[in-house]
Design a protein that fits this description.
Elements (H helix, E strand, L loop, with lengths): L3 H4 L25 E7 L3 E6 L19 E5 L4 H9 L5 E4 L2 H6 L4 H4 L3 E7 L4 E8 L9 H10 L2 H9 L4 E2 L17 H8 L8 H4 L10 H17 L3 E3 L2 E3 L7 E6 L2 H16 L3 E6 L2 H9 L5 E8 L6 H6 L18 H11 L4 H17 L3 E3 L1 E2 L2 E7 L2 E3 L15 E3 L1 H7 L4
Parallel strand pairs: 10-11, 10-12
Antiparallel strand pairs: 1-2, 2-3, 4-15, 5-15, 6-12, 6-13, 7-14, 8-9, 16-17
């Protein structure tokens, strides 16, 4: 909810505000904190509103216990970690499995002044994957797209790059009850029957499962299956290069924007080249990356979609035909599928929870069997490290993850034991 009177008013210089324009003027809000000061791109400090209107609302009692909250932004995760280790920050969220496994070996962790803790993620699901740009002719054939999945050895990547911490994603709604499994039945089957002539037959006959690698025998079997699919799609290998019926070699560029994504793409590259697909990795800065996404100027990217526990209109933005050619839309893949469109509407207009779950299962299943992407991996916990100066009540809410900072407070007794921040 935005205060109309403020946005239609004028700023301190008498200039009329424009809700459609960017601004560095702190806006009027209605929450328990307001902006105290900020340095664009570096930090922001919030202060508690002393007369916050919702302080005595039952759901708010015992929350928002800090007088000030300061967030520091770093472009480099390693620099952020060094600042945390030097006690220049109280908390740090860690998204790197490698960092979590290897970088937290400094003395403060060993003597328990710094606590590493993982909090379960129960409030959302996600899909993260190598995503094809199906607007390009080379990705029109579902057999080609499926071959890419057979070439991806997740198990070996998980072992080499992530210390075995991740699990493979098998659903567009991974981590929730909305993820499909087994064969469709009941209300889900009834919904799928309405689009039966528009979906792959495997939707009804075969439970979706990603290929499993991790050892030489399994990898060879998967690559043989990939080669078989490519042959069925009209490709053949000539001089170690995969070519189409006209003799044109198949080449793919994976566009990425950061070193962690580059590591993942580089791991995938040799497997693709083993089946004859010439693969390059292009690393670009954030601005160029966003511009290329908006203009759909890419072959493949690493993308992710967060999912709530109650999906709705956003599914049109993610997978709907109307969003496929809309610059900046989240349908980066370019999906234009009447069955998908119909199932999205079933999700949006579901009349109860059971129907919503069944419709989402059906949508998930159809998306999976069209192989619009190569699913990657996920982790069911948020990783945090903190200097042990804080406490919270028990138990934390099931759907609240860490509850930070809302449900925590400064613990003077703990702080005295480990010392004040340097």
């Amino acid at each position: 909810m935005l205060p109309k009177h403020w946005w239609e008013g004028t700023d301190a210089q008498g200039r009329k505000r424009d809700i459609s324009a960017t601004t560095l003027e702190p806006p009027l809000g209605s929450g328990p904190y307001k902006i105290k000061e900020f340095v664009p791109g570096r930090s922001i400090k919030l202060e508690r509103v002393k007369d916050y209107w919702g302080a005595n609302v039952p759901s708010q009692i015992g929350t928002n216990n800090f007088d000030e909250l300061r967030y520091e932004f770093f472009r480099d995760n390693l620099v952020a970690l060094e600042a945390f280790k030097a006690d220049q920050a109280d908390w740090i969220a860690e998204n790197s499995a490698k960092q979590w496994a290897t970088a937290y070996d400094f003395p403060a962790v060993a003597d328990k002044r710094v606590v590493k803790e993982e909090f379960p993620i129960n409030d959302s699901g996600r899909m993260q994957a190598f995503a094809f740009n199906v607007r390009r002719d080379q990705f029109k054939d579902v057999r080609l797209r499926r071959a890419f999945n057979y070439a991806f050895d997740f198990e070996e990547m998980n072992k080499q790059l992530f210390f075995g911490q991740y699990k493979r994603i098998n659903s567009y709604f991974e981590g929730t009850e909305l993820a499909s499994s087994g064969l469709p039945e009941g209300q889900e089957l009834q919904i799928l029957e309405t689009v039966k002539d528009k979906v792959p037959p495997e939707v009804f006959t075969t439970a979706y499962q990603n290929p499993v690698g991790g050892n030489p025998e399994a990898v060879r079997a998967n690559l043989r299956e990939a080669a078989k699919l490519l042959k069925e799609a009209g490709f053949e290998v000539r001089d170690h290069k995969l070519v189409d019926a006209s003799g044109k070699p198949l080449s793919v560029e994976i566009l990425v924007q950061d070193p962690s994504s580059e590591r993942i793409a580089l791991f995938f590259k040799p497997s693709l080249e083993r089946i004859g697909i010439s693969t390059s990795i292009r690393v670009v800065d954030d601005a160029q990356y966003q511009n290329r996404l908006r203009s759909f100027d890419f072959d493949m990217i690493i993308d992710q979609w967060g999912q709530s526990l109650s999906p709705g209109n956003e599914q049109r933005e993610f997978w709907g035909s109307q969003a496929a050619d809309m610059p900046g839309a989240r349908n980066t893949i370019g999906i234009k599928n009447p069955a998908v469109d119909a199932l999205i509407e079933k999700v949006i207009y579901a009349k109860n929870r059971g129907e919503l779950v069944a419709a989402t299962h059906a949508l998930d299943r159809v998306l999976l069997w069209n192989f619009y992407l190569v699913p990657q991996f996920t982790y069911g916990f948020s990783r945090y490290a903190r200097w042990d100066r804080f406490s919270h009540g028990e138990p934390l809410p099931k759907y609240g993850r860490s509850g930070l900072p809302t449900l925590w407070w400064y613990d003077a007794e703990k702080a005295a034991r480990i010392g004040k921040r340097s």
